[in-house]
Design a protein that fits this description.
- The complex is a heterodimer of chains A (449) and B (182).
- Chain A has helices spanning 3-17, 19-25, 40-49, 59-70, 104-115, 133-137, 149-161, 216-221, 226-241, 253-269, 277-285, 292-311, 361-370, 398-404, 443-448, and strands at 51-55, 75-79, 120-124, 141-145, 165-166, 169-170, 178-184, 187-193, 320-324, 330-334, 350-353, 380-385, 388-393, 422-426, 434-439.
- By secondary structure, chain A is α/β, with parallel strands linked by helices.
- Chain A has an eight-stranded mixed β-sheet with strand order 3-2-1-4-7-8-9-10, with helices on both faces. A five-stranded mixed β-sheet of chain A has the order 11-15-14-12-13.
- In chain A, strand 12 and strand 13 (388-393) form a beta hairpin.
- In chain A, helix 9 packs across helix 10, helix 9 crosses helix 11 and helix 10 (253-269) packs across helix 11.
- Chain A is globular and about 60 Å long.
- In chain A, 40% of the residues are buried.
- The model of chain A is unreliable at 1-9 and 444-449 (pLDDT under 50).
- Chain B is of the alpha+beta class and 182 residues long.
- The longest helix of chain B is centred in the last third of the chain and has 13 residues, at 124-136.
- The model of chain B is unreliable at 12-23 (pLDDT under 50).
- In chain B, strands 1-2-3-4 form a four-stranded antiparallel β-sheet, covered by helices on one side. Chain B has a two-stranded antiparallel ribbon with strand order 5-6.
- Classes of the chains: A alpha/beta (449), B alpha+beta (182).
- The interface between A and B is large, with 90 and 66 residues.
- The complex binds zinc ion (ZN).
- Zinc ion binds at residues 200, 202-203, 339, 342, 344-345 of chain A.
- Chain B: InterPro entries: Ub_conjugating_enzyme, UBC, UBQ-conjugating_AS, UBQ-conjugating_enzyme/RWD.
- Chain B: It comes from Ranatra chinensis.
- Chain B: Residues 28-172 form the UBC core domain.
Chain lengths: 449, 182
């Protein structure tokens, strides 16, 4: 067979493979952003340079990886700390029975790479917290399909900490957009976060549905629902009787059985029906059933946003889309507003220059009070050293003041503060905590001096 | 419009080896609790104790009511804010045995903002005021200790005596209360 012809045939195949994308990227149209300049370069960027990080390889993650890979993205990384469980297989379609027990990230990457020619997914079987700024900075876009608010808030803090400002102006090359998808049963949402520009996760913490809770007195005295009975056993009876001498473990069938029996007794006592083992398990473990179709819709929306951001062919979602198919289909898009007092995004990290590590904490506090741009009154300062929180000085809380007073006489070196350490400063003069990054001259600089 | 493809085509292929996480940064919960604690504006009947000054997420609140049924008593509450604070409220338990319609003998407290009515805009200070209010106005409508609630509803004199008895240390009915006078 003629090799030349085969190569040509492949190219032809590739040309046709991306023809739909080229229609979007190489022509203008009424839905394009007015600044959009069609060019063949854009597809080239999507396919060869654009680096996308997918967080989570679960229900949303499998959908996202499939969507992105089929849309032409080739440089994809995926992080997931979980292994595959039998109960995942109905919707996490990159996994098979033989994969049970293996890391989700590894199996998902292997599947996509084998199935979609040219695509290179790099798996990371780890926690998001295992990576530092350096790692996250390499990506153009981050898309997350997480089921935890703590993890979302951590990611949010990370992309905000990557921003850098020149004289108060955001350096746009440090901005990494985050597309965030979330689902709960038949409800879901997709949102686009331009850190430092649009509402961040902390700005809209109110939007996350709180865990279902019932008033304690209802649970204790006037239960009406089977859930009330289960909560009663979980919150009150367990602590009183302590049947296994340990906190409740939702994965231990003995625990669930005990709760089931006790809740049944209580339900009988109050004439409440509908109490099943399944319900007990669900309430104790806070299980909200995952729905494959909701994941598919939300992931499709997120992947579209990634494509829009990467190509600039269309304005991105502004900025929050809710979806609900409990009863018919409902969707609504609105602009979640940036909270001007947001603790995470309203105050970018400020640099605080100190002469060297021999400066005493008291001197640093004095300088915050004397500095014309801060003029603080009685700043409280905490920091994080080697991953542990440390209170340096809190003047207003008597019991802490007494025990941190001696820190005032210590030098920054003695306190473990280094170049780049972050100080969290709260003061009555500012409605927010201010984060300072310490800048000390390097030792060689001092030699030059 | 941010044009990623023109901005960052030059983006470096940063080395992507996983590292031991850089943990210089404070968590969002830590940022928020620092602000909450530094802004604590305690009524004169309340004080705080921090067993570990480096851990602002765990502390005790001491309430010594100066009026109402519980005047002269001293009640300790443990506070524990988790990593999801303020999305989730701190866990609060009463550590002093108290004869109170809204606090049971295990220390569970029935205060709406500790559970179903918690909102991230609320602060530690809001809870302090809520707890202080529970001592001024025990509420027999939402009982956790049903017996105490019934007594309060039907015989305020007896309720007052029972509270005194419990605070001095002794039995109310079949339940023994430890002395908690200031
Ligand atoms: Zn924000």
């Amino acid at each position: 067979m003629d090799i030349g012809n085969e190569t040509l045939g492949n190219q032809d195949h590739l040309q046709r493979r991306w023809s739909h994308l080229r229609k979007l990227l190489e022509r203008s149209g009424p839905f394009c952003h007015p600044d959009f300049e069609p060019s063949a370069e854009i597809l080239n960027f999507v396919m060869s340079s654009c680096k996308v990080l997918v967080i989570g390889a679960g229900g949303l993650g499998c959908e996202l990886l499939k969507n992105l890979a089929l849309m032409g993205f080739r440089e994809i990384h995926v992080i997931d700390m979980d292994t595959i469980d039998l109960s995942n297989l109905n919707r996490q379609f990159l996994f098979r029975i033989k994969d049970i027990g293996k890391p989700k990230a590894d199996v998902a990457a292997e599947f996509i790479n084998a199935r979609i020619p040219g695509c290179k997914v790099t798996p990371h079987y780890s926690k998001i917290q295992d990576f530092d700024e350096e790692f996250y900075r390499q990506f153009h876009i981050i898309v997350s399909g997480l089921d935890s608010i703590v993890a979302r808030r951590w990611m949010n803090g990370m992309i905000l900490s990557l921003l850098s400002y020149n004289e108060g102006e955001l350096d746009q090359s440090t901005l990494i957009p985050m597309v965030d998808g979330g689902t709960e049963g038949f409800k879901g949402n997709a949102r686009v976060i331009l850190p430092g520009i649009s509402a961040c996760i902390e700005c809209t913490l109110d939007l996350f549905p709180p865990q279902v809770t019932y008033p304690l007195c209802t649970i204790a005295n006037t239960p009406r629902l089977p859930e009330h009975c289960i909560e009663y056993v979980k919150l009150i009876q367990w602590g009183k009787e302590n049947p296994f001498d340990c906190p409740i473990d939702g994965d231990d069938p003995n625990h669930i059985n005990w709760i089931y029996e006790k809740a049944q007794e209580r339900a009988r006592q109050f004439n409440i029906g509908g109490l099943t083992f399944r319900l007990v398990h669900g309430v104790v473990k806070n299980i909200i059933p995952a729905v494959a179709s909701t994941n598919a819709v939300i992931a499709a929306s997120c992947a579209t946003e990634v494509f829009k951001l990467a190509s600039s062919c269309c304005l991105p979602l502004n900025n929050y889309m809710v979806f609900n198919d409990v009863d018919g289909i409902y969707t609504y898009t609105y602009e979640a507003e940036k909270n001007p007092d947001c603790l995470a995004c309203s105050n970018n990290v400020k640099t605080l220059d100190v002469k060297d590590g021999n400066m005493k904490l008291q001197e640093l506090i004095d300088s915050l009070c004397e500095n014309p741009s801060y003029q603080m009154k009685s700043p409280g300062i905490t920091t994080v050293i080697d991953g542990k929180n440390k209170t340096l000085y809190l003047p207003l809380i008597k019991s802490i003041e007494e025990r941190t007073r001696e820190n005032l006489k210590k030098t920054l070196n003695e306190l473990g503060l280094k170049n780049g350490s972050q100080l969290i400063v709260a003061d009555v003069t500012n409605p927010n905590t201010i984060i300072f990054s310490l800048r000390m001259p390097k030792e060689n600089d001092m030699v030059v001096e | 419009m941010i044009k990623l493809f023109s901005l960052k085509q030059q983006k470096k292929d940063g080395e992507s080896a996983p590292r031991v996480g850089n943990q210089k940064k404070a968590s969002a919960a830590q940022l928020r609790i620092t602000k909450d604690i530094n802004e604590l504006n305690l009524p004169k009947t309340c004080s705080t104790e921090f067993p570990d000054p480096d851990d602002l997420l765990t502390f005790k609140l001491i309430i010594c009511p100066d009026e109402g049924f519980y005047r002269g008593g001293k009640f300790a509450f443990s506070f524990k804010a988790g990593p999801n604070y303020p999305h989730e409220p701190p866990k609060v338990k009463c550590e002093t045995q108290v004869y109170h319609p809204n606090i049971d003998l295990e220390g569970n407290v029935c205060l709406n903002i500790l559970r179903e009515d918690w909102k991230p805009v609320l602060t530690v200070n809001s809870i302090v005021y809520g707890l202080q209010y529970l001592f001024l106005e025990p509420n027999p409508e939402d009982p956790l200790n049903k017996e105490a609630a019934e007594v309060l509803q039907n015989n305020r004199r007896l309720f007052e005596q029972n509270v005194q008895k419990a605070m001095r240390g002794g039995y109310v009915g079949s339940v023994f209360f430890e002395r908690c006078l200031k």
